[in-house]
Specification:
Layout: H1 2-22, H2 28-46, H3 56-79, H4 81-87, H5 93-114, H6 117-131, H7 146-153, H8 163-199, H9 205-221, H10 224-241, H11 246-259, H12 269-278, H13 282-288, H14 290-311, H15 324-327, H16 330-348, H17 353-372, H18 377-418, H19 420-432, H20 436-451, H21 456-466, H22 468-472, H23 478-490, H24 500-509, H25 513-523, H26 525-536, H27 546-568, H28 576-589, H29 595-616, E1 620-622, E2 625-627
Antiparallel strand pairs: 1-2
Length: 628
Amino acid sequence: MRDRLISLLALGLGGFILYTSGVAPFDSLVNRSIFLALIIALGVTIYPLGAGKRWRPLGLVVDLLMTAGAVGACLFVTTHADQIMTELPWATTPDMLMTLVLVLAVLEIARWAIGWIFPVLVLTGLAYALFGDQLSGPLNHRGFDQAFVTETLFLGDLGIWGMLVGVAATTIASFVLFGSLLLHTGAGQTFIDLSMRIGGRSPGGAAKIATVASSLFAMVSGSAVANVATTGNFTIPMMKRLKYPPAFAAAVEAVASTGGQIAPPILGAAAFIMAEILGLSYVTIALAALIPAILFYLAVFITVHLVAVNRNLPLVPEEDLPSWSSVLQPHRIVPIIAALGGLIVGVLQGYSVQFSAFIGIALLTVSYIGFALFRPESGRREVVERLLAGLKDAGTGMVIIGVLLAGAQILVAMINLTGIGVTLSTMIVDIAGQQVMLAGLIVAGVCLILGMGVPTTAAYVLVAAVLAPALTRLDVEPLVAHLFVFYFATISVITPPVCVAVFVASGIAQTNWLNVAVHAVRLGASTYVIPFLILAYPALDGIGSWLDISLAGLRALAFVLAFAGVLGGARFFGKRLLDGALLTLVGLLCLVPSAWVSGAAVLALAALYLWRWLASRPTHSIGGQRTQ
């Protein structure tokens, strides 16, 4: 019964997303309130209170009452949307009760879905708004009563019904549906097979398969943890079967999956929020993230290659690799091309992001069903089942995003109401003075702390509201500042001690998570450096002329290659300390502002790698003479 109810609610939410994306969107307050009502109803069904315990009957009563109260509060806003937006009503006792139940429902679902950390942060924000006038020093504010907080949260579009929930109900929801349908119609396996053909027969092939597959998958899913749980169940056992150390195998998957959140075309859900906050198009955000994403994956790929060569890790046997003909069959490739092509063309034509996603979904569905017409009846049933499964998974997948952004919207509203964001950014600027890099170090540390145990989207919202202004006050471009905090919010999932992606990967590999975390930090070390590179060279985010972008990209590329060489143990003269010191020196010289110095360092690095490649080529004997 419960499974059937989950399926019906998830299909209903998926259908609502599809309808509002491509057919007829509602007014903002109506759209957001209906969306959150569906999210809460589905969330309580998925995460029942006291499940599997003797007191579950009491939990069922609480669930029913909480769902009725929260959904009723949402529908109250739906039916009174015009009055709320035109009359700005005063909060009454029933309004305060509806707000209380709604907030508790959102936080309870979040607690079940991701743990205590996030709900505690939101409750702290609410407590600060209500009782912050009791504090002394810079954290003191004038104080707000329950009625004013209710009016801010519930009776307007700056609280629960604000921009974050709006983005979740439109742009993010449409892309989650797009990604879910794409993966359920076979793209996930196709991505894995493509990556096997691309990297399988080179040193460290299994790890490279994990890197390529996870990057392709994460570009669509935009979720590190979901990516690890999906592709990791294939790539980690494959690496272990080929005698890769379990901790190394799990770390490769965790790091590659994390990078997908900063990789175009979709990035993570946080990128859509960034576009709304900055007032920029999503295409601008995606293009700005392109060069850093390339640098990240190149660094991971090179590090994996060097580790594989040094440890003599085996190749993937040819018989385990799919043939190119099977990978490139039209029924597998055409739906993917149609979906991505429709999405890209829609964006380039100037349509909204959600309508562009709708176009991609429509073309995917038509092409997928078109090929199904040539299948037997049993195969056609499978096609329908996969499409319905895609709709269902999109609905259930939106629960966590929906409650996270609703909770984050509550916290952001309290931050804006109390002015604590301005206070904290002022404190950071006072500590750092005018030193941008010092401010960056402080911001990076706080980002990693706030992001621990909190999904990337929520972590980005928190740091963007509080910490990005500290960088912009030091004349850092807003886009650069937001990408900086976005990257550190992203890599918090592989940063100890609370590294969610590492926990999931270590569980699949059945090994100690701490060993996985050590390898993950080593493999993903470039991600901790790249944000500082974009602070030093904003052209890496596409800001400036093509010459500026090219020079910055070349410098950053050389530095990342040198950095990857140090971490991967590149061998030039056979002495690790000497090789590491040489690469470190050359890498640092690549960043020197002088074009002559940095240019010479780039050429020196290229010469070193070319010499190493030529020296490693196999030799053959012909007529008693050795030739290469």
